[in-house]
Amino acid sequence: MTDIATRATRVVPATGGRRRQNGGGPRAGVIVAFVIPFFLPFVLFYLVPIAYAVWQSFLVVRRTGGQYGTSYTTFGGFEQYVQVFQNTEFWASIGRIGLFGIVQVPVMLFVALIMALLLDTPLLKLKSFFRIAAFMPYAVPGVIAAIMWSFLYSPQLSPVVDLLKAIGLQPDFLGPGAVLWSAANVSTWLWTGYNMLIMFSALQAIPQELYEAAKLDGASNWAIAWKIKVPIIAPSIILTTVFSIIGTLQLYAEPAVLRQISSNISSTFTPNMLAYAVASGNNYQQAAAISVVIAIITFVLSFGFMRLTSKRAGL
């Protein structure tokens, strides 16, 4: 019996070791099988187009033989980038989008925060209804939303314009001084509910014991909201701000649709519209350079804001 037990103790570890060694292969195969469906499209439809755009931005088109000669594409270094930085329309579009973001993003996030705090308070009734109603505009595609609002902005079609004229006002939502904010209003209407839902989800994760302890100390609902809830959900506010910065620099659909009814929006109104207009003129290399510059600006602003606010918030 002793010999059998000794043999068993010698055999079992070896067998277990072989099982673990042989089991590594199937497990690795399972991991690969789960990763490939994400990794392959990510490489093909994300990394490859980015790499191709970067490569195109370093190319230039040369022409030989005069106006009716032949053209060829060659490596031009940073020539396209020099032209982008010398393009006054590019900087004008950056200025518009910067003004847009400085005003629209804080207003949108402040409204989203107020809505999230109201939905989180126990005093509000019909929370499910208001949550769905606030989130519903996000379900509307941006182009459709811009078309809907364009009817409300149009002097010939808008009942809002007719109502304001009836009380003695002369609104011009598509005028040169208002059209940027008309586009900002569409973006705010679209994305406030989305940002509100992110903040509201963070509020739902806060333990109720904190509120109970604060109430025992005599804190009011106002103090609980601004001194407990808002500091705790600061990471969510930072996240929504980063998303908003990225979305602002990608602005295209709203001004592109409003351009159909307003002469105050040019084809170079935003950086993305400028890139599209340049590409429509068959200058794909400069359009690629504009896109790369927009991507770099987006990365610098969003990453810089995230690092700055994370340090201040102690995250």
TrEMBL record:
Record's subcellular location: Cell membrane
- Membrane protein topology class: Multi-pass membrane protein
GO biological process terms on file: transmembrane transport
Quote the CDD domains the UniProt record gives: TM_PBP2 (cd06261)
Q: Kindly provide the name given to this protein in its UniProt entry.
A: Sugar ABC transporter permease
Q: Which family does it belong to?
A: Belongs to the binding-protein-dependent transport system permease family.
Q: Which organism is it from?
A: Planotetraspora thailandica
Q: Which SUPFAM superfamilies does its entry note?
A: MetI-like (SSF161098)
The GO cellular component terms are: plasma membrane
- Every ABC transmembrane type-1 domain range: 94-305
> What are the entry keywords?
Cell membrane, Membrane, Transmembrane, Transmembrane helix, Transport
Instruction: Give the transmembrane region(s).
Output: 28-55, 97-120, 132-153, 173-191, 232-253, 287-306
Q: Which domain of life is it from?
A: Bacteria
